[in-house]
Design brief:
The protein is an alpha/beta fold. The protein is 30% helix and 16% strand. The chain is built from 27 helices and 29 strands. Strand 8, helix 7 and strand 9 form a beta-alpha-beta unit. The longest helix has 19 residues. It binds ligand MGD (2 copies) and molybdenum atom.
Length: 774
């Protein structure tokens, strides 16, 4: 049942809207949305989803769990799988849920289930699993994100909310008004291809081009030259990774020393500037934060630092910090230092000026501010409200009952026994994967709903075969996008795959919550219901006039009007700080926060400082790894797709190093190398490039972890999952956020046979067991 226009079936993904056509042999082709000025090549990964490659085609259980029952198990991740019938696996899983809930209560269940899943408002996996667990009395969930976990915790202390990372000043305002875009971590074109929930018009590149055409200048501060499009002719400053705070503090001091700062703005709109300015003169540590002080730390000449500060003060400047710069150890500091620098410039609240956190980190940031409501699946209230910081999952599993600190609170990890994931891939996204494997082995039961045999699915006891979006009908929409897309069904589900909704409905029904979870609707009825509720309720109240569902389905989309005004972040606060105070204790921007200072954290004091990383390169691991988000796919999704595979080098994830570092190690372009860190090692395919700062190695996330091939080669991953190298430690006690962006590594030639990549093969299947144990 789908609307199929002559162009094909309208559909949507996190990396773009498209139409899909199917040929006589069932092969799917995708065609970008006709209104998209800059479609993403990531669309090229989609067709493989419709083939059986790497798909979970029916439910499976791990042999040890099926035969010996739940419990911590060293075989988890290496055991055989048994194909089973849906009804028997749901019966058995419901019994296990019952056991855990009856014996230990809902705090023994973890259903945080972090991950991007897929576009689509109803079938969104996290919404489904959260609704499901709320129906059962709740489960432990996670707070914040891997993306911008530092900003989510820090920004409320500094500016009173999360606006700088969710909806900063519109990019159109930057296009029209900014003289200098000062981009820490760059504005990588690759990242703006993606926006959570979908993006039907890719506009970032065009906006930046427009700014340049008007005469705006760009400075790229990043270890990688290609973090900003070459056409923007940026000046490239490449500091040592993890030293941006030192650079910014020195730039702050130059402004003050030379009288280039806006004392009036500090006076009217900021609090704690006395403490902050005194710290620049060494009040805390006796060290004056001059450019000469910053030069040996950052590797950027003092004269360049001084010049950069003056240039920023000479016109309308937008200071932007990518999310990645904070996805690091002590990542609170560069972000807070950038806010302080923008305060000294005094342009916050003016068109095209001030600061933003995450422009181009996705295509949605600065695009729209989310003015119009969207259809939304009600999740009920969380009756439990027990959360762990999202990137502390392995700590929680390994250290039940132990204390930890976060954002001024003393907390205790719950004892998690049943782990249930739908729509995320922790064996891609988490750090130190060998440690995560130990953590998953400590659980009693692991349930994973997945369309694909990801490494996470391979570490489960129960693998529930899930449909992809191509196999179901939904409404696609995102708060930063300008249309609702009717996502039609492109093909029948492969094998016995079921929608997350139907899987969870089956489980809820066995646990006595079926009626509450489903409200008596089929998936198809729910999609129409969500749309109609929205159409006649919030949409109508917002002055929108969308057509009835049937017409929407025929048309394939509904266009949202432009937002009434172009957003300038903190404009009203700037105009009248008394009348429109920020939601900070002082009502102003806090350059020094008494609240944060009161926590007494040496890893995040009360104002921005430079804290040297405790994962600094040394003799054994002399190179800085930058583990950024991948250009050729979204995270680990569809790594077996054509576009992602075309980007591999020697069949592995590419590893980029500077020519000098390659020569020093006798390495040549295209060869298979081993990248090692204190945690593990992985193979990769070498790319020698002067777009990388000397001393830096760049390897993107998202290659599936292949421990099998890796073991044969004497390494921890034979295919190139960078997270076997990264360190599992929080940013600080403040945010406890993901720090996966950096690690200290060494690169050397791989000697000996190159193992076959096995991660897209089906796992070892055991013959069906005669009878499951009672
Ligand atoms: N070292 C390092 N690590 C990082 C980062 C980094 O910068 N450096 N970045 C981090 C960031 S910012 C993020 S956001 C995370 C991303 O981490 P994730 O969001 O976990 O990564 P994805 O690969 O998108 O995982 C989504 C999974 O959901 C599955 N899926 C898709 N649709 C459906 C569906 O409808 N139902 C179900 N049940 N499953 C579905 C996909 O097959 C895939 O396995 O990674 C983080 N990891
Ligand atoms: N194609 C594609 N797009 C994506 C994603 C994807 O997987 N694929 N993932 C999406 C998601 S979930 C997110 S959260 C965003 C992530 O958005 P970001 O976090 O902004 O992206 P990254 O690619 O991780 O990092 C951007 C750049 O920061 C630079 N950088 C790293 N360390 C430092 C440092 O210490 N100092 C400075 N100055 N620069 C540094 C690196 O050179 C890196 O290329 O991307 C989104 N967009
Ligand atoms: Mo992210």
């Amino acid at each position: 049942m789908s609307t199929t226009t002559p162009l094909g079936t309208p559909h949507s993904s996190h990396w773009g809207a498209f139409t899909a056509t199917t040929d006589a042999d069932g092969r799917v082709s995708v065609h970008p949305h006709p209104d998209d000025p800059d479609p993403s090549p990531l669309l090229g990964n989609v067709p493989v989803a419709a083939t059986p490659t790497a798909r979970v085609l029916r439910p499976h259980v791990r042999r040890g769990w099926w035969e010996d029952g739940p419990g911590p198990d060293e075989r988890r991740g290496e055991d055989e799988f048994i194909p089973v019938e849906w009804e028997e696996v749901l019966d058995r899983l419901a019994a296990e849920y019952r056991r855990v809930l009856d014996e230990h209560g809902p705090t023994a269940v973890f259903a945080g289930s972090y991950g991007w899943a897929s576009a689509g408002r109803f079938h969104h996996a996290q919404s489904q699993i959260h609704r499901f667990s709320h129906c059962l009395g709740g489960a432990v969930r996670s707070s914040w994100t891997y993306s911008h976990g530092v900003g989510e915790v820090l920004m409320p202390h500094v500016v009173g909310n999360q606006e700088p990372l969710i909806s900063p000043t519109a990019l159109s305002s930057v296009e029209a008004h900014t003289d200098l875009v000062l981009a820490f971590g760059g504005l990588p074109a690759k990242n703006s291809e993606v926006a959570s929930g979908g993006i039907s018009r890719h506009e970032v590149a065009g906006r930046l081009r427009g700014a340049k055409a008007r005469g705006a200048e760009f400075v790229l501060v990043s270890p990688l030259r290609d973090d900003l499009a070459a056409e923007l002719d940026a000046e490239w400053i490449a500091p040592v990774p993890g030293t941006d705070a030192a650079l910014l503090l020195a730039m702050c001091r130059v402004l003050v020393e030379e009288g280039l700062h806006d004392a009036g703005f500090l006076e009217r709109c900021c609090s704690g500037s006395e403490e902050f300015l005194a710290s620049l003169d060494g009040a805390d540590d006796g060290v004056v934060k001059t450019p000469e002080w910053a030069e040996p730390i950052t590797g950027v000449p003092a004269a360049t630092i001084r010049e950069l500060a003056r240039r920023a003060a000479a016109g309308r400047t937008m200071v932007t910090v990518s999310w990645s710069v904070a996805r690091t150890r002590f990542g609170e500091q560069p972000l807070w230092a950038a806010v302080a620098f923008a305060c000294l410039l005094g342009q916050i609240g003016l068109p095209g000026g001030g600061f933003g956190h995450g422009y181009a980190s996705t295509g949605g940031v600065g695009r729209r501010s989310g003015h119009y409501p969207l259809p939304t699946l009600p999740q009920f209230a969380d009756p439990l409200r027990v959360r762990i910081p999202v990137a502390r999952i392995a700590d929680a599993l390994l250290h039940p009952g132990e204390p930890y600190e976060v954002d001024g609170r003393h907390e205790v990890y719950p004892h998690l026994r049943l782990v249930h994931w739908a729509g995320g891939n922790p064996f891609h996204h988490h750090q130190d994967l060998q440690r995560l494997r130990r953590a998953f082995r400590a659980a009693e039961t692991v349930v994973v709903q997945e369309p694909f045999w990801t490494t996470t699915a391979r570490h489960a006891d129960v693998v529930l075969a899930t449909t992809t979006t191509l196999e179901r009908e939904d409404v696609g929409a995102a708060r930063y996008d300008d249309r609702l897309i009717h996502m039609g069904r492109v093909h029948e589900p492969l094998g016995e795959a079921r929608d997350d909704y139907s899987v969870l409905a089956g489980l809820a029904q066995r646990l006595g919550a079926g009626e509450r979870f489903t409200e008596g609707r089929t998936a198809r009825q729910w999609v129409e219901h969500l749309y109609e509720e929205w159409r006649t309720g919030p949409a109508a109240r917002a002055g929108l006039t969308p057509p009835p569902y049937r017409e929407f389905r025929e048309a394939g989309e509904f266009l949202l009007p432009d937002e009434p005004e172009e957003k300038v972040m903190f404009a009203s606060f700037r105009a009248d700080p008394q009348r429109f105070p920020l939601r900070t204790p002082s009502g102003r921007i806090e350059l020094h926060s008494r609240t944060v200072a009161g926590f007494g954290y040496d890893d995040c004091p009360g104002h921005p400082v430079h804290l040297p990383t405790d994962e600094a390169p040394d003799e054994e691991f002399p190179l800085h790894l930058v583990a950024n988000n991948p250009a050729t796919r979204l995270h680990s999704q569809l790594d077996h797709g054509a576009h992602s595979q075309a980007g591999k080098v020697a069949g592995r994830e590419p590893v980029r190093v500077h020519p000098d570092d390659a020569t020093a190690r006798g390495l040549a372009d295209g060869q298979v190398v081993v990248v090692r860190s204190r945690r593990g090692s992985c193979l990769g395919g070498l790319v020698v490039s002067d777009a990388v700062r000397r001393g830096v190695v760049q390897m993107s996330t998202g290659a599936w972890w292949d421990p099998v091939a890796g073991a044969e080669a004497g390494v921890t991953c034979g295919y190139g999952n960078v997270n076997v190298l990264t360190r599992d430690v929080g940013s600080s006690r403040l945010a406890q956020a993901c720090t996966g962006q950096h690690a200290a590594v060494q690169v050397s030639a791989h000697t000996g046979p190159v193992p076959r990549v096995t991660v897209f093969d089906r796992p070892v299947l055991a013959r069906p067991a005669a009878t499951p144990p009672a």
